[in-house]
Amino acid sequence: MIRFVRHLPLAEPEKQAILDTPREIRRFQRGDTIYRPDEPCGAARILVEGLAAQYRILPNGERQSADLVFPARFCDLGCILFGVSDHFLAALTDVEVVEISTARILDLFARYPQIPVLLLHQETRNRSILFERLLSVGRRPAIRRLAHLLTEFRLRRELAGVAPSRAKRILLPQRWIGDFLGLTTEHVSRTIAKLKAMGLIEQHRNAIVIRDPAGLARLAEFDPGYLHPGAEAPPRAPPARRGREGGSTVAGFGGPGSEGSKVSANES
Amino acid sequence: MIRFVRHLPLAEPEKQAILDTPREIRRFQRGDTIYRPDEPCGAARILVEGLAAQYRILPNGERQSADLVFPARFCDLGCILFGVSDHFLAALTDVEVVEISTARILDLFARYPQIPVLLLHQETRNRSILFERLLSVGRRPAIRRLAHLLTEFRLRRELAGVAPSRAKRILLPQRWIGDFLGLTTEHVSRTIAKLKAMGLIEQHRNAIVIRDPAGLARLAEFDPGYLHPGAEAPPRAPPARRGREGGSTVAGFGGPGSEGSKVSANES
DNA sequence: CGCCTTATTGACGGACCTCAAGCTAAGTGG
DNA sequence: CCACTTAGCTTGAGGTCCGTCAATAAGGCG
Q1: Architecture field, domain A2-231
Q2: Does A11 contact chain B (CB < 8 Å)?
Q3: Are A137 and B133 inside 8 Å of each other by CB?
């Protein structure tokens, strides 16, 4: 939590105010449902460790997933602003979530106006990412959808501070890949096989490893603009980083004032 | 513009500040492209009259539309926050757009912290609507997709203050319906024919008229929760309304503090 | 080892796309 | 007033991408 706050693109008083706010840490295991839309919710939830997926379900049980939640991100602003969540959140890994009561969050908003502005940045970027997913599901064939998803996750992990070599390794059950892309697991499996045959990816156990990032991005017709790279990177100069660079040591809240480096889909 | 500001769920000082802000009105005709993502953009754009559609395109020219923009809504927050737009905006009717320079908007943010909070509400709701569209495109068959879209537009127009009888009349070219739903115009045409055969809708000239709103909502498995109805309705008590209640007289910025009435998909 | 979850592979069917005409309504100009 | 055009919609035939159903692996874990 402290690590998480320190990297926010906020001034010291804001950071200190967040650190001074009473909060609760909850832990979940891989596969757990972190929350459901039919539960009462009186707290903001911020993911601090691990990876989670937002999804909705249809009456017949079919699922559609909108996005991953990476560390240092609010899981669900609707919960604070409207008092209800509009989706399920599932833990894809073991997960740590910080809860801050809605009343305290609104109090923070009132006392530190930079905080809602920061969240406005995050949410605008979130919508942009969701728009791109809709474009994939609505108009791209399965193989491009998959190539696009893999490229997007690789880039977002890099932007969050994961080393490029690690970011090429994607651990996501095919059931979830299908739920992101609007495909069945069977078709995901077949499509992965095609990418493998094209030499763009490899599979090791349950992980997909990107072998040719540039080729994959080209197949996906990937244009990274929608990620608004400046908004995920830490603000100005990123703070010095501790030894291990696993998923959640860094991130940054994203936000205003961050120039961010240009991202190209053609590197490597 | 004045009409528009008066209905915002903001206190008087905020409203006055917005009214005092220098701005420019631009008019477009049906079919015009209001802006494109590759243009420089240094101003916030607020739709005050008419109807517009946000969309992205693929290299092969296929289009995917995310959402309609109704009057009294920001067209594109990315433009202010990131300096670039991430989509095209097309005028579906003749349209009036107010432009306020980014610098002045950011100044308003700084002086009146309620304004970014209001936009945060809007954007959270926008994302929720987009999520539901993704669910449609990813997992619902064409006939439900269409039923859902028609129901959503009807309800949103009602929430924006359009009389229920008028809200049942939907004027949207089939090309655009297809772009919202990820379908070809041919298939949209065939699907409309099915709904007509089921007695749920009628067609008059270019308009679709909903004949059985409840039946359509049932077919769509429509759950209105994602619209966060409280956020579109004017705050507390809605101000008295002038004579004509066409598309754009009312609306309201949506936002905090608005309880809003419960919406049911089963009325009428 | 036996069980359970996850992934693979195949045969088949169907929802939706493609391509191609033809239709209607609303202009436009003579 | 009547060709002629144009934009939007409709209709049909045929094909394909992806879903469904079902059987078979292949790990993980007690």
Answers
A1: Sandwich (2.60)
A2: no
A3: no
